[in-house]
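Hi support team,

I'm filing this because I wasn't sure whether my run with adenosine monophosphate finished correctly. The job status page said complete, but I'd like someone to confirm that the output block is well-formed before I use it downstream. Pasting the exact inputs I used:
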Amino acid sequence: MSLLVTYDAQNIFAKILSGAIPSARVYEDDRTLAFMDAFPQSKGHTLVIPKVDACNLFDIEPADLQNLIVETQRIARAVRDALSPDGVRIMQFNGEAAGQTVFHIHFHILPMWDDQPLGRHAGGGMADINELNALAAQIRAKL
Ligand code: AMP
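And here is everything the job wrote out:
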């Protein structure tokens, strides 16, 4: 698949934005939504997405990207403060060959601990929604 993909309004994050699919929401405003990854690679794995139709880094408007990364920083700080990880990895994939599986641009916030290996990307088990909602509330309390 090329990097020049056309935005598909039926992608899973578009459905999360519209509310058609449930998610464990951490934060929302008129430009941004943050929610828990349903197949977390670590405890507190959070996704931050813009409310614009962009597939990846290459088709998002610079002003929207600027807002998205600043919001990612703000939410990453709250994840850090809520969960006290040893490190926090920020990930963002462009194109199937790079590991992207959902074609609505997003940043991953991955809390990491020295003694805990990361789970598989987009291949692990689905988390319990009640646990995700509890983590979302913990993170939201630090925003
Ligand atoms: P990427 O592979 O970078 O496109 O990341 C997509 C992420 O979305 C993966 O980490 C998936 O676990 C996650 N994901 C897929 N479906 C859902 C869903 N319904 N709710 C929350 N996260 C999801």
